[in-house]
Amino acid sequence: MSERRPGIVHLGVGAFARAHLAWYTQESSGAPWGITAFTGRSPDMAEALAAQDCRYTLVTRAASGDEAEVLDVVLAAHPGSDDGAWRRVVASPATSIVTLTVTENGYRSGSDVAARLVAGLDARRAAGAGRIALVSLDNLTHNGQVLREAVLGAVTDDELRTWIASNVAFPSSMVDRITPATTEADVDGLADLPGALPEDRIPVVTEPFAEWVLEDAFAGIDRPAWETAGVRIVEDVTPYEQRKLWLLNGSHSLLAYLGLQLGHETVASAMADPVCRTAVEQLWDEAALELPLPEPEVREARAALVDRFANPRIRHTLRQIASSGSEKLPVRVVDVLRHRLDRDPAAGIGPGAATAIAAWWLHITGQPELVNDHGAPGPDSDVHDVLRVIAPDLDTTPVVAAITAAADRIRTARSAADRTTSDEGVPA
């Protein structure tokens, strides 16, 4: 029988939650907390966890090698279809936190996520179980506010709406830890890895870096002492959301589109290319000018990203990152440009942003077989079509000229890379 308090309910249990939320919770000092996990739709992970008493191996993959530890913070795992268990656990007085990793689609109108949360909260109100926090761990700006709006939008009972307003907190959070999909080779490799759970079929592989910035909005609500494990508790998460979006996510998109143009497959490979690295540094220079954070902190974040991106043993594919550019570029790249122009209308578009947008343009027109983006313009699009999708108000002569020039530079670099590949017989 575990001594952990079953105080956290998590919806959407997957690799990221098991490498991030679970790890931080297990590493926290003080009274030990546990997690009751629910899957989204498929019952597979609940069944797999239950078969191992909810224990699994976390493999931290550094450039120098792997380290393994066994996490036992998950106390029980249920399929998402178990509505009775969901209502019972959310209504329990022992529960004070519900966390979610349900992807962006889980917050959209018509998703069953909000309805499930409302059902759980209604059961909690009926049980008189007191205040509770709902914490999104998804990569959304102001995710606490987004979650609150999704939940309230699914409430049809005015009395329940009033109860939620008084008893439910929706702290925003920023989370970060690259967690690639576990492969059969990863599973097989556990046999030779000290510290791994014997015969583990569901290990999680992750990078050494982890970050969690959490809004301090837990008045009257118990939570683990996450700050003892490195979680930063702050009044406003917004600057840290911007730092992640503009530095990490923005450069990921740039590396994806530019790297694919130059024949690369992974982030590590693209980051080792001087053409890509220069463009990333330019994008970071532009973002740094707009971030409302101390310069040393921004500099430290950039240095950490260089190390993370260069880790050759974390296989983060560019094709995966390249999806949904029509949704990602406005918040990862264009938002920085808007701040830049608001601060100095004469500044124009920087070379980093111009290269990112130009690379996306060349990606959708020159590599249509790789495009996974319902909002993208077609393969015969020009630069005006591209701007119409991500920044229609910026379709000006100077911006168009800068993006067109950046596209020409990418074509030149691509031709040089093609010649090198032809001459040497290996990718540049």
Automatic annotation (TrEMBL):
PROSITE patterns given in the database record: MANNITOL_DHGENASE (PS00974)
Catalytic activity: D-mannitol 1-phosphate + NAD(+) = beta-D-fructose 6-phosphate + NADH + H(+)
Sequence ranges assigned to domain Mannitol dehydrogenase C-terminal in this UniProt record: 236-346
Keyword Amino-acid biosynthesis included in the entry's annotation: no
Keywords: NAD, Oxidoreductase
Keyword NAD: yes
Assigned EC number: 1.1.1.17
Every Mannitol dehydrogenase N-terminal domain range: 7-227
Name of the protein: Mannitol-1-phosphate 5-dehydrogenase
InterPro entries to which the protein is assigned, alphabetical: 6-PGluconate_DH-like_C_sf, 6PGD_dom2, Mannitol_DH, Mannitol_DH/Oxidoreductase, Mannitol_DH_C, Mannitol_DH_CS, Mannitol_DH_N, NAD(P)-bd_dom_sf
UniProt similarity note: Belongs to the mannitol dehydrogenase family.
Gene source species: Curtobacterium pusillum
